[in-house]
Every structure is written in structure tokens, then in C-alpha cells.
């Protein structure tokens, strides 16, 4: 088996020649001989370590890294052609920093997004939607239910022309995948994270409580874009797709909101992926323990991520919830263990993962990206122990 076959087989709970290990590196990681800001270098590092890399399709715009799906899908290429945008900066004593504003003039009204323009703002004169934007938002894009129709004009299903626009980038990605025998991943979307990125966490949560029907419509608008993107990923050559769910768990929203708003939409997205011939996995981080049975009921092929040391969801609890219903792509805590000072603790956790999950329907992974301040010997210990047990 090559890495592609191994990952796909494990994701669908089929037999594998050995348990795969697929981890991911933050772009700030520095390893001599590898420029890890580039996806091919990250693939090469995993291959040199003997792990099972995956590589991401690009459906974003030139100027943003093709390996950053959050940036790709917020790049503005889904807007109605009649939408006009304007960007400017105003001084603000109240915020303590200048404020960068972006107007969207749509057929249904004007939306305005404002963020603190701090010295570390990485996007120049633009406001894409991601974690950095959410944490710097001082004026939410969506302020009231009257803004939802306008939002539908700027967040629409992507145009199939994206495949032509990024054909060159994706040809290179598919070539790298063939050269290394690895799987190609498409990005299904962000779910409620899209709303949070555009509004900021506090406003998004309060909006969900104060305006439940308008909030539900926002989630539906996002899901419609996800379904279209899944189909584009299939056409572009993806082997499977990822659906981010890290910001729609109970550390942001109530179980009721998840069950009433999120689950029906997730089920539609899973059907869309399977209709397109693609396995689909769901990424969570923390806050998922009250929802484990709900997540397991959706029909995902695999659940990825989790954080057993910094949440109430142990590896055993995770396995009990998903065993026989979805594969598990999880394992060693990035912040608690890979970022720690004890390589032997990392080795013990790898052994524990094998004891808990066994060899079927399991991909050994990490709970978040491996970063430059993590002692590198911890990652090497994880890989070495996996090779001993796999």
C-alpha cells in the first residue's frame, strides 16, 4: 500500500498493511533543509520521516497560500457580480489602534466590517475571514437579521470557473500527490466558523440566541456554499474532503443549537460528498463531549482532531462514541505533550493510542499543528514509537 491507499482504507475502516500516521506542521515550524511555508516541503518532510502526508487542493485566489483552506474559501470569489467593495482606514482612539473597514455594497443593502488594524495585521488592505480577523473584529459584518439577505450576496456557492482559474496550481498538486503516492484533500468548508469569522465570537454567539431564525439562515447559506465546494473538489481530483467543525461545538453554542441548526446541514453535506464519491471527515478540537452521539449519527467517514488532555473528552470516551460508526484520526496532544518537555511521555501516549484504538479505522495523528516552539525531539519520538508499533 502507498500512503494514499492506506489513509483512504483506514478512513473507511478497511484493512491496512499498517496503521497510518498523518500529522501536520504549522507554517512557522523551522526544520533545517525544509521551507515549511510551502506545502510540497511539508509533504517532503513527512515522507522523509516515513509518515503519511496528504496535500490540499487550491480553490483560492492568487496571493494567498494554496495550503490555507480558511483563506481560500474566504477569498471573495463567491460574491454576486453586482457587489462592490471599498476598503479604508480610520483613526480610532476608542480602539487604541486604527480601524480597517471594508464595505460590501450589495443589491440587498450595504454591509460593513471593521477590524483593529494592529501592527501584526497580516493581510494588508483586506479583511478575509479567519481566526485573526475574528479576534480583531470591532464592528461585525452582520449586525442584525436585516443583514442576512445581503450576506447571501457575498457568500454564494463558488463558481465552477474556479477550477479553470486554479488549474495550474492544482495540476502541480496532483503531480506531487502522484510522485509521493499520497492522498489529495479538498476543503468542504467551515460551518459556523464562517459566521464567527465574519462577526467575531461574542457577537455571533449573542446573535444565535437573540435571532435564532436569522442565525439558522446564515448557517444554511454557508452550507449551500459547502455543498457546491464539495462538488468542485471532486471535479478537481480530491480523494476526500475535510469539514471543519471546531467552532460549532459547545464551547461556543448550546447543544440545542448544534442539534437543531448544525446536524441537519451536516447530514446534507455528507450526502453531497458521498454522492460525489468522496469520503468526508469532520474536524473537532474541544467542546464536543456533550455532542459525541450527535456527531456520530451524522454519517461522517472519519472524525479528526480532539484534545484529550485539555478537554473533558478522553481517548477512551472518543473511541467508545465513534467505534463502528466512524474512523478516528487522533492521538497525541500537541499543546500538552508535543509542546512539552518529556519525549518519553509522547512515546507512552502513542502506545496508549494503539491500546485504545487498535489497528482498524485508526489514523495516528496530532491534536493540532506542530509549531516552532515545540521541542523537535518530541515529534521524532512520536514517529519512532509509531514505527515500532505500527
The CATH class turns out to be Alpha Beta
Strand order of the largest sheet: 1-6-7-8-9-10-11
Query: How would a crystallographer describe the biggest sheet?
Result: 7 strands, parallel
Instruction: State the oligomer.
Output: single chain
Kindly report the CATH topology: TIM Barrel
Q: In the CATH hierarchy, what is the architecture at level 2?
A: Alpha-Beta Barrel
Distance between the termini: 14 Å
Structural class assignment: alpha/beta
Mean pLDDT: 93
How many domains? Answer: 1
Strand content: 15-25%
Low-confidence stretches: 61-77
Rg is 21 Å
Shape: globular
Number of helices: 16
SSE arrangement, N to C? HHEHEEEHEHHHEHHHEHEHEHEHHEH
Q: What is the number of E strands?
A: 11
Helical content (DSSP H or I, runs of 4+): 40-55%
How would you sum up this structure, described in words?
Helix 9 packs across helix 10 and helix 10 runs parallel beside helix 11. The strands form 2 sheets. Strands 1-6-7-8-9-10-11 form a 7-stranded parallel sheet. A 4-stranded antiparallel sheet has the order 2-3-4-5. 44% of the residues lie in helices and 16% in strands. It is α/β, with parallel strands linked by helices. The protein has one domain: TIM Barrel (Alpha-Beta Barrel). It contains 16 helices and 11 strands. Strand 8, helix 12 and strand 9 form a beta-alpha-beta unit.
